[in-house]
Design a protein that fits this description.
The protein is α/β, with parallel strands linked by helices and about 270 residues long. Helix content is about 50%, strand content about 15%. It is built from ten helices and nine strands. Strands 1, 2, 3, 4, 5, 6, 7, 8 and 9 form a nine-stranded mixed sheet that branches.
Length: about 270
Amino acid sequence: MSYEKALAFYRFALIILVFLTLTPLYWVLLKVNQRLGFRFGRFYLSSWRKCIGHHLIIKGELSKAKPTLFVANHSTYVDILVLGTVIPARFVAKKEVAAWPIMGWLATNQGTIYIDRNRTAIADGADKLVDYIDKGESLILFPEGTTSDGCRVLPFGSSFFDVAMKKDLVVQPVTVTYALWDRLPMPRYMRKHFGWFSPDVDVLSHLWFIAQRGMIHVVVELHPPLQARDFSSRKDLAHTSFQAVQRGLVAAFNHPLPEQIRMRMAS
């Protein structure tokens, strides 16, 4: 058996162990105290992320405003594990996510709000999001509307920012970059393999592929928050958010490690 397959079997064994040991507690907490269950869910998602060898490098500061609308680029279902670890908020996702093996179950139990992604349904879904905003709950949104190949950021749909303009929310752009592979810059061809943007590849097959690939460092850059009232339209807010996320992706590919981490890894 090759080293890569042995590593994948080891990581899948860890996933099964986490599932068997932590899931009952997670389920009970969600039933007894949903807010506490969601808090534990961040640790639960982090455990799954570590099982597949993904480690985080955090840049910037998390918005302290409640509620905040967090908007991020999206290249793979692993984004759920990454952002679910860092940001205490509900995900907003297309309803198809609920049917994904494993990740759909995780997303649903962590309180994901599902909406249709056609233009009419998005407008209707905005009313649903307002209900959560009025309760003081922060949301995580993927304004690209689909997954990219991890090498670029797709244009942000402005309709996703309608709720921010209506409720004058703080919006924090977030860039997620799968930047390092075994402590070396990830080659462009590997970024595309780590991204999950092809409907021809099922989730389990893709998870098996990345489980064989050593250690991955994911850069999560939390950009300075934006106030909706400072923008003349939702298109302006969407474009400014897009530019921040795009700059973060380029910066993470060129300089993925903060200076203190570079020094620690070099020593």
